[in-house]
Design a protein that fits this description.
5-stranded mixed β-sheet, about 270 residues, about 15% strand, 3-stranded antiparallel β-sheet, alpha+beta
């Protein structure tokens, strides 16, 4: 069933939210973090006997202070997952352009938090890695992105770096790839001493038209650039990290917008503090 069917009316939307927040009639207080049953007040808010704080359903869902209904929030989230444009989100949710853009930004922050909570494992096994330039150099709007992906596409890591030097490459791999993994890369000099970092590695040379070993990461770059072109048309260096986070999240969590439990899990992920 389409996930939007569960958000067809505001009553259904709130029922969906309560179903996944109040498991066995209990929920975790957003203030004292204790899980218990809560007293419902006359204005619809909840009261915690432990910390004596009052809070709303939206506060518990991580959208405190939002003036939108849960149905509108879920519709914007659905558009975000399915790569709809801001105009489509405006039409489907009945909101203004600044509102749609602001909530898209909120979803990216949530995606970053969701990745941190649910994707903590490092890449392992056979890992293809490479660098990719994004943007136009003549406009001073170009950035270098390092990427690493398991050849079975089970995990992915992307990071913006100043340049493809040995120090940056080795630090990126140490942070994202488990020791003992087998690194597949091109003939760039930055990868020459990976054995000292605890990796085995294998090289192929792109200038000789060798693309077999690194085909996985080359596919990632093709998908990412297509994603940028179709979704945002162009990108600035300031927004690139947000788009990388969005792409990585959608690549690793493809079923989130189809599975109601995963959809709710993402919706209720707290936004990290700035």
């Amino acid at each position: 069933m389409n996930i939007l069917e569960q958000f067809k009316t505001e009553a259904k939307s709130q029922s969906f939210v309560r179903k996944y927040l109040f498991k066995h009639g209990r929920a975790k207080c957003p203030c004292c973090k204790r899980e218990r049953r809560f007293r419902t007040l006359g204005d619809g808010r909840y009261w915690c006997r432990q910390c004596r704080r009052k809070w709303s359903l939206k506060q518990l869902a991580g959208v405190r202070g939002s003036k939108l209904s849960f149905r509108q929030i879920a519709t914007i989230l659905y558009c975000f997952f399915n790569n709809h444009t801001l105009q489509a989100a405006m039409d489907m949710a009945g909101v203004s352009y600044p509102t749609a853009r602001r909530y898209y930004d909120l979803m990216r922050y949530k995606a970053d938090a969701f990745i941190s909570l649910h994707s903590k494992q490092k890449l392992s096994g056979q890992v293809a890695t490479d660098g990719c330039y994004v943007g136009k150099r003549r406009n001073n709007n170009q950035a270098l992105v390092l990427g690493a992906v398991q050849i079975d596409y089970a995990n992915l890591a992307l990071r913006i770096v100043p340049q493809e030097e040995q120090g940056y490459v080795e630090k990126f791999l140490e942070d994202t790839v488990a020791t003992g993994s087998h690194i597949l890369h091109d003939g760039h000099l930055a990868y020459n001493d990976l054995s000292w970092c605890g990796y085995t590695h294998e090289t192929e040379y792109h200038h000789l038209n060798q693309f077999t070993l690194t085909s996985a990461i080359e596919r990632i770059w093709a998908l990412f650039k297509t994603f940028l072109r179709r979704r945002y048309h162009h990108v600035t260096k300031e927004k690139l990290q947000d788009y990388l986070t969005e792409f990585q999240f959608k690549f690793l969590h493809k079923q989130t917008h189809k599975n109601p439990l995963k959809f709710a899990q993402f919706l209720f992920t707290p936004v990290p503090n700035a």
